[in-house]
Amino acid sequence: MKRLPLFALIIGLFGLVSCHGTPATSTAITCTTTTSTTSSAASYSSCTDPVTKITVTISPVTVSLNVVTSTQISAFVSGGTNNVVTWQVNKIAGGNNTVGTIDSNGVYYAPATVPSPATVNVTAVSYQEPTLSATSAVTILPAPTVTISPTSWTMTAGAANTKTFTSTVTGATTSTGLVSTNVDWYVNGVLGGNSTFGTINSNGVYTAPLTPPIGSTVTVTAAVSVFPLSTASATVTISGYSTSSFQGPFAFSLAGRNASGAFFRAGSFSADGAGNLNGGLEDINDASGVTTSPISFVGTYTLTADGRGTMQFSDGRTPSSFRFVLVNSNQLQIIGFDGTGTATGQANLQDLSTFGISGLFGTYVFDFVGVDSSSKLLSQIGEFTADGAGGITNGLVDINDGGVVTPATPLLPFSGSYLADPNAPNTLHSNGRGKATLHLPSGDRNFFFYIVSRGSAKFVGIDPQTTAGAVTGVTTQQTPNATFDLTSLNGNFAFLLAGSGPAGTIATAGSFSADGNGHLTTGVVDENVNGTAAPNLPFLSAGTYTVASSGRGTATFTTASRTYTLVFYLGATGNAVFQETDSNIASGGLFAQQQSAAFSLASIQGSYALDSSGLSGSSVQVLTGQLSADGAGTVSSGTIDINTAGTLTPSEAVTGVYTALSSSGRGTLTLNPSTDNRNFAIYVVNSTRVIVVGIDSGRLAAGALFRRF
Fold it and tell me: Which of 27, 548, 631, 670 suits a disulfide with 602, CB 3.0-4.6 Å?
């Protein structure tokens, strides 16, 4: 055989360097390109060295993709002893930020901007035979564009209210080079949205949340599925409420007075979002006795755009007509609203998944308020542990019965039990109803309860008022596995107490600062005794407090008015139930840790639900309503519903002003209805809750503002 000259062999070798889908310049190289008729991603190019029998194959031959996206380039080597390839982009090993990069697995990452020219060559080079390669042509496209229609929309809250948004996508390609018009839908950055901001499905159908979110607006966004950086957004304004804003199962508790005397009620119902209350069940303890079996009822409701509503229970009891205001989709504040007397209470959305007997599990603090057998005010606060199987242990209770405080030292623990629905063992009633017995040191006390969630339940006492008195209230779960000591009380706290004393009804609000070491370093109090207000009283000196490992604590402080001694039980982080232990005064309530941020006029901004109870002269007065605060000291609008011992004042328009807040979070609020001004001291807890106490002469009120939106 005649040998080739050396230079001819070199030329032949260099002729193998590049195969870009077409035959190399050397006629000895065989390159084949196959392009699918349906997708360029199915195409491939193979280049073979007939001498070594090594073949490099790359796929696809051509592909297009948008900037800042990636695509898989596949390559394999056959016919040799090493199937590894190395990668180049425009002859640069691994590429760079200008032409794009490629990793060892063949994943090509397009650059952030379109290069010039826009098509780059991605080459797979045989590691065994570096002169043998195959190349794909990758065209870099600009970022796709997307539009949304409409770009703004106004609608009311409620699950019945929907709006369809549409999108158009131009210039989007998938990683395999296919054109894409798909988008993913978000609400306030959450894929598919949620119950707070509203939901949106894959077809762009947006469903409003049950109640307006904080700020009243949400953002609906269409993001290109293959290029999430390309988005278009629309603003949705949730302008108010609708009938469908109120729906779901709710547990409630109510207390008040009717023609027969004091009454206490707990129960549940389901609002259908269309004006009907179904499946109602309630237990009642009033002057005529205790219901021997739960009362079943249905009812109706209405709801106006400002979130105020009416309810009617068809249960044959009084009151049966109510006014309420929605705080959010989980909570409404209720007052009785007929001529038979007054009532106040709250309803909360139930979590049906907790309706088994294990729905009570963990340590709970409780706050029960009512009357004793002599119609004196009765306050019972404490804690117990439920084992999730019907047992209650580790109970502690402090009782203030008309100013007579128990227990005597030492504090005696109690036990108890709770029962499931007798017709369905190991479960509660479909309404979340169960029965509990607490073996208190003063005697057994029996209750029916309605579960709200694993962390909360509504209780009503079912012992006869004439022998044991009657109470109603709530239990809330203590922070699980918490350990308590003096450091558990550290920071600023706002509180509210209500009850009675020798001079009549008392309402007390204030704020104190705890140092985590047993001292209440500063504080301020506003107190109203039967319509005589003592406003803005500072602590005269540092107070003191204790905290036991159970979470039970005591506190003492003094103002120019009097010395206060109190007991409390710490519950969920930053919250506690509170009770006075001063002789001849029966008063109970709560305290909550205040925000750490500085207070200002802007601390009160947006739409609020207002709820209060108290006196007007010698008559019991309850009210609910809604207010709009501008964050600069003005209440621009509002409407309240008032029941004064059965005299009804519906839909009274109000405006008002509020003052700048001190470092304790204290300020004042004046509402200007058509009748006469209402003045309150206010204590901001945080951006969602404000404690209020009336400071008018001849009138008393205690309650709260709850931020709605």
Answer: 631
